Amino acid sequence: MDRFLVKEVQCSVCTTVQQAQQTCMECNVTFGEYYCDICHLFDKDKKQYHCQPCGICRIGPREKYFHCEKCNLCLAGDLRGNHKCVENVSRQNCPVCMEDIHTSRIGAQILPCGHLLHKTCFDDMVQTGAYRCPLCMHSAWNMEHNWEQMDKEITQSPMPTEYQDATVKIICNDCQTHCTVPFHVLGMKCTGCGSYNTAQNGGLIRQSQEPQPQEPEQQPQSPVPEP
């Protein structure tokens, strides 16, 4: 049902049909502790408020949220000036479940890159071991501790001799740096930001083998004629 098109309601107590409003005009029963005359939403009091730019009611309280004009979304107050704006970000579907985010009753998780996921989808994604935004591949949280652990694992796991001098070109998903780094099966570290969230760009580059010096060939000597 499209709540915005609701014009009349029927009281379940006295069955009176009347214009949509918060209390019954006949028996004065309250239809809902909260009522929005735009969304025609009847609900228990959850500190809801109607956001005009969003076009819907949201659970508040209002003073703890603000509407970001560029993101076109209500965000927690502590994110004011402290988040990466992505234009109309909530008008995209969740990249995990492909369901709507803007009108969803499920909370949204804001990633460092600015993209949104349903909070439940984000939790499920983390449980599978995924750590990157499904849209842009940027790390979904601070991974510094993980990169330090990766440094230790790589130090303790040297590559076989034939690969120790091999390098590879990479692109960093976190800072977009293009660089050439030592190849390792566990991961390639960005020289720009230290992230292992990188993608290989091309095949292995092996160092050219220096030619081994060859001893000069012994020329056969002619017998010296006797005098």
Automatic annotation (TrEMBL):
Keyword Zinc-finger listed: yes
Domain CTCHY-type: 31-93
Low complexity bias (residue ranges): 207-221
Keyword terms, alphabetized: Metal-binding, Zinc, Zinc-finger
Pfam families, alphabetized: zf-RING_2, zinc_ribbon_6
Region (Disordered): 204-227
GO annotation terms (biological process): protein ubiquitination; ubiquitin-dependent protein catabolic process
Coiled-coil residue windows: none
GO annotation, cellular component aspect: nucleus
Domain CHY-type, chain residue ranges per copy: 1-29
One example GO MF annotation: ubiquitin protein ligase activity
Residue ranges of every copy of the RING-type domain listed in the record: 94-136
UniProt-listed CDD domains: RING-H2_Pirh2-like
SUPFAM superfamilies reported in the protein's UniProt record: RING/U-box, Zinc hairpin stack
Protein's name in the database: RING finger and CHY zinc finger domain-containing protein 1-like isoform X2
UniProt lineage: Eukaryota, Metazoa, Chordata, Craniata, Vertebrata
